[in-house]
Amino acid sequence: MIRAPIQVDLTTGELSGNGVQTTIRTLCHLQGIFRDEKSRQALEAEKVVYRVQAFHPVREGEEGGLFWGATSIEPGVVGDEYFMTKGHYHSQQNRGEYYLTIAGYGGLILMDQARKTVYQPMRPGSVHYVPAHTAHRVANTGGLVLTFLACWPSDAGYDYERIAAEGFSARLRKVSGVPTLVEDS
Ligand code: S6P
Ligand code: ZN
């Protein structure tokens, strides 16, 4: 089915138009995600960490379509770990994705099947290819809202359970004020 276009505000990354859905993730949704659980609990449970807008022109799980999204992560830390997304593998592991940074500064954290974790600095205009079979999460390392756009296959899905069970092998932490990828102990 041919769908009407939606709009991206190229300054803020905000999406608008028919079919755009918004999900908010507050600190209370992020239990077990950050290394320092005590610090997370000490912060306000309703504090917004990130917001995801998504445009699904076809049904989720349908083969052959593409989804479009915008994620905005607030600046902040839990302990010494930057505010970040939950992170996931795609349920259909052989599906990749693109990210395009619109505003702010951050890090895309990628972990391959061998649990080798790397991070790529994100800045306005940076385009990042998330390969298939690769866990991905984004952290806001700056003092402003970090917003990026994403495009991914409509049958990719989300595997959050594997991240909940196994985590990433390294975390992006603020060490002497500098974003540093630290192996998880
Ligand atoms: C979807 C894509 C993004 C994330 C979003 C939030 O494949 O990678 O739209 O869903 O950045 O991250 P998460 O890990 O909470 O889904
Ligand atoms: Zn994804």
Give a summary of the structure in a few sentences.
The chain is built from two helices and 15 strands.
What this model shows, in words?
The chain has one domain (7-183): Jelly Rolls. By secondary structure, the protein is mainly β. It has helices at 37-42, 161-166; strands spanning 7-8, 15-16, 20-26, 48-55, 66-73, 77-78, 81-82, 97-103, 106-111, 117-122, 127-130, 135-140, 146-153, 170-175, 178-183. It contains 2 helices and 15 strands. The strands form 5 sheets. It has a 6-stranded antiparallel beta sheet, with no helix packed on it. The longest helix has 6 residues, at 37-42. Bound molecules: D-sorbitol-6-phosphate and zinc ion. Residues 88, 90, 97, 136, 152 line the site of zinc ion (ZN). Zinc ion (ZN) binds at residues 88, 90, 97, 136, 152.
Q: For the record, what CATH class applies? A: Mainly Beta
Q: Could you give me the name of the CATH homologous superfamily?
A: Jelly Rolls
**Gyration radius, in Å:** 16 Å
Which strand-content bin applies to the residues?
35-45%
Strand arrangement, largest sheet?
3-4-5-13-8-11
**Structural class, from secondary structure content?**
mainly beta
Task: Tell me the number of strands.
Answer: 15
Ions, cofactors and other bound molecules = D-sorbitol-6-phosphate, zinc ion
Question: What is the string of helix and strand elements?
Answer: EEEHEEEEEEEEEEHEE
Biggest sheet statistics: 6 strands, antiparallel
Distance between the termini: 49 Å
The name of the CATH topology is: Jelly Rolls
Tally of separate helices: 2
What is the mean pLDDT?
98
Bin the helical content.
under 10%
Query: How many domain units?
Result: 1
Unreliable runs, pLDDT <50, ≥5 residues?
Answer: none
